[in-house]
């Protein structure tokens, strides 16, 4: 494991073929998101973005479940608790100003998954609660074990989800009625239902099989041109948030540069020769 990826709550390993395994590793707390977890997750994906060795990422979690959601004990004693009650030294406006900065910092850490130019495949097992939905909706692909279940939990703790679920989930699923139902009710969604609505693309019998499938998918992606893959992710994200016309015009500008890659000639020649192409790191 590279020194750049030493974290207290994450386990990271980069294989020779360019697949980074990022495991949320706080099993004794059911992988609940403390401030350390989300800060390290943001830092990790910031480093992945700049690491030319990495071509694809598999994001999973250790222990019984993917995550129990927000660490409520820390939240009650930390910024959320202070925002509710205040400390008597400042008024509501001043408390709100800094609480907004805290939320934005939290959002940026999770958005680092989306803005990382390498595709991220989430492998979910057991419970995926609250912030877990924020995290997986920022990923490119979601694979689940059969025991996985998903809950947009925030209404049950008296708040609206504010780290990305309400913005990304409607675009991931494309069914506004279903999204509103699960966000308003906080009901559990099984892996089977998640696949039916398009939240996950595959359901495997066990965590081990889901992780194997996610890793195999990552290896297949890592074998492609890293310029082509990074460009594809970037353009998909841009086009999702803009009109078709804007997306086409932006793509034309982007590919004016990207088409200068030697990877195109390498890929075409390998295809003609029916050989496996080999591409340099990004």
TrEMBL record:
Q: Could you tell me which pathway this protein works in? A: Lipid metabolism; fatty acid beta-oxidation
**Where in or outside the cell?**
Peroxisome
Q: Which GO terms describe its molecular function?
A: delta(3,5)-delta(2,4)-dienoyl-CoA isomerase activity
What is the superkingdom listed in this entry's lineage?
Answer: Eukaryota
Q: Which SUPFAM superfamilies match?
A: ClpP/crotonase
A Pfam entry, by short name: ECH_1
- Keywords on record: Acetylation, Fatty acid metabolism, Isomerase, Lipid metabolism, Peroxisome
Can you tell me which family this protein belongs to?
Belongs to the enoyl-CoA hydratase/isomerase family.
- Which named protein is this? Uncharacterized protein
Source organism of the structure: Coemansia javaensis
């Amino acid at each position: 494991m590279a020194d750049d990826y030493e974290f207290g709550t994450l386990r990271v390993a980069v294989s020779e073929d360019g697949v980074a395994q990022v495991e949320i590793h706080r099993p004794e707390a059911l992988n609940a998101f403390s401030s350390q977890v989300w800060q390290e997750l943001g830092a990790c994906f910031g480093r992945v973005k700049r690491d030319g060795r990495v071509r694809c990422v598999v994001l999973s979690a250790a222990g019984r479940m993917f995550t129990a959601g927000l660490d409520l004990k820390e939240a009650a004693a930390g910024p959320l608790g202070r925002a509710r009650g205040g400390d008597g030294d400042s008024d509501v406006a001043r408390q709100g100003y800094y609480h907004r900065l805290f939320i934005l910092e939290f959002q940026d850490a999770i958005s680092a998954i989306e803005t990382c130019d390498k595709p991220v495949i989430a492998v979910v097992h057991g419970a995926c609660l609250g912030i877990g939905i924020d995290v997986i909706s920022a990923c490119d692909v979601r694979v689940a074990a059969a025991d996985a279940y998903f809950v947009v939990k925030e209404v049950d703790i008296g708040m609206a989800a504010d780290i990305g679920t309400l913005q990304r989930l409607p675009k991931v699923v494309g069914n506004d009625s279903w999204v509103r139902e699960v966000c308003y009710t906080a009901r559990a969604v099984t892996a089977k239902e998640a696949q039916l609505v398009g939240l996950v693309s595959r359901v495997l019998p066990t965590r081990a099989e889901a992780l194997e499938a996610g890793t195999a998918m990552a290896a297949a992606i890592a074998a492609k041109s890293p310029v082509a893959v990074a460009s594809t992710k970037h353009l998909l994200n841009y086009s999702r948030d803009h009109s078709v016309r804007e997306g086409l015009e932006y793509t034309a500008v982007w590919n004016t540069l990207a088409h200068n890659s030697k990877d195109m000639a390498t890929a075409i020649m390998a295809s003609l020769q029916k050989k496996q192409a080999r591409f340099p790191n990004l």
